[in-house]
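Key result, reporting period 2: structure in, sequence out.
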């Protein structure tokens, strides 16, 4: 029996008092057009057979990478619709912009300095700048529009990884298709490098900008400087350029991979670990009042603030209550996290307005109590 039913009131369904803004229909149609045009351009260069095989090879591993990215965002998962839109931006708008601008830039340089100079310029300058700006624009829009979702470094990395995976998937269609046309060792080497050694390349590049934006958001109300976001974007371009340089000069590839790419990847994972611990402290600080109010035990509070403890709690709920118990426990974790980060944002000045803030607080508390009564705790 829910809290409302015990008080003689009908249960009140939970709803988001401030749902993420929906994309304008024109933007949605624009993304679809960009995606179709990008695939037509790539398909025209490759031919039907190579395009089809390249598309298949590029799309098959994507679900695995997406699951790994979502696994990082365990305290306050981002809205699935927003993640899908971010992935789609990378696969459509960002790819089309890169094809268009890079093609124009390389054509201009070729007419002045020759094909070799154009290829080098495109690889080291044009592609890193244009592609990171095109992907980064999605992050900037999310940062500005979703103040109640884009909370910190982890969110920045997750959104960056999604837009990077979308971009890499379509880019790999082209690379795999070209390798299939060449045949032999070229196709095996391309799949090994892009599919096995560096599937994280584009997400890693763009995560630099995501980290910068996330750090600025974390410092909101504490003198955070937007220069960190600019520095992150510059780091994304530089890292992308270094990677392309190593790929262009094969004798440098393994050294760049071992000395630059892998250490950067490990460093990002380490930063995510530290950020998750920070998020745990946010939960502990902003949910402590629930213990004082008798809505939550101190032991349950600690459970909510640790990823491993949450996993153990959901596993126990699965064995005790089946899928219903598992879903109730997961929803409890989600609502508690949303409540804590809502309070954190309001404390930092990221307010929706006094009335909207109070309404959202009430909805989260109401839903939390209802889930506790249903056996979530």
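The corresponding designed sequence is given below.
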């Amino acid at each position: 029996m829910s809290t409302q039913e015990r008080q003689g009131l009908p249960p009140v369904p939970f709803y988001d008092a401030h749902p993420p803004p929906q994309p304008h229909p024109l933007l949605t149609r624009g993304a679809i057009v960009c995606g179709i045009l990008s695939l037509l351009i790539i398909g025209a260069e490759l031919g039907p057979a190579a395009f089809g095989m390249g598309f298949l090879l590029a799309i098959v591993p994507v679900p695995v990478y997406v699951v790994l990215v979502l696994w990082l965002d365990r305290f306050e998962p981002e809205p699935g619709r927003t993640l899908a839109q971010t992935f789609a931006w990378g696969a459509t708008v960002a790819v089309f912009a890169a094809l268009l601008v890079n093609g124009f830039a390389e054509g201009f340089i070729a007419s002045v300095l020759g094909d070799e100079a154009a290829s080098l310029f495109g690889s080291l300058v044009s592609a890193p700048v244009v592609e990171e700006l095109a992907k980064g624009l999605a992050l900037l829009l999310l940062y500005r529009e979703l103040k109640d979702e884009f909370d910190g470094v982890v969110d920045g990395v997750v959104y960056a990884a999604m837009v990077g995976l979308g971009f890499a998937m379509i880019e790999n269609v082209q690379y795999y298709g070209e390798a299939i046309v060449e045949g032999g060792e070229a196709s095996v080497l391309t799949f090994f490098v892009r599919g096995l050694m560096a599937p994280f390349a584009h997400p890693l590049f763009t995560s630099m900008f995501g980290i910068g934006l996330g750090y600025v958001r974390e410092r909101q109300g504490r003198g955070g400087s937007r220069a960190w976001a600019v520095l992150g974007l510059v780091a994304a371009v530089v890292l992308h350029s270094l990677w392309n340089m190593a790929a262009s000069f094969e004798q440098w590839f393994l050294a760049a991979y071992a000395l630059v790419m892998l250490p950067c990847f490990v460093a990002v994972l380490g930063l995510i670990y530290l950020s998750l611990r920070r998020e745990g402290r946010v939960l502990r600080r902003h949910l402590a009042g629930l213990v004082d109010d008798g809505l939550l035990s101190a032991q349950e509070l600690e459970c909510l603030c640790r990823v491993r403890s949450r996993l153990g709690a959901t596993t126990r709920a699965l064995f005790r209550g089946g899928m219903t118990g598992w879903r109730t426990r997961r929803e409890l974790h989600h609502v508690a996290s949303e409540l804590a980060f809502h309070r954190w944002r309001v404390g930092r000045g990221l307010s929706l307005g006094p009335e909207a803030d109070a309404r959202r607080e009430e909805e989260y508390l109401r839903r939390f109590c209802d889930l506790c009564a249903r056996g979530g705790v």
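The chain is about 80% helix and 0% strand. The CA atoms of residues 243 and 256 lie 7 Å apart. This case is discussed further under Risks and Mitigation.
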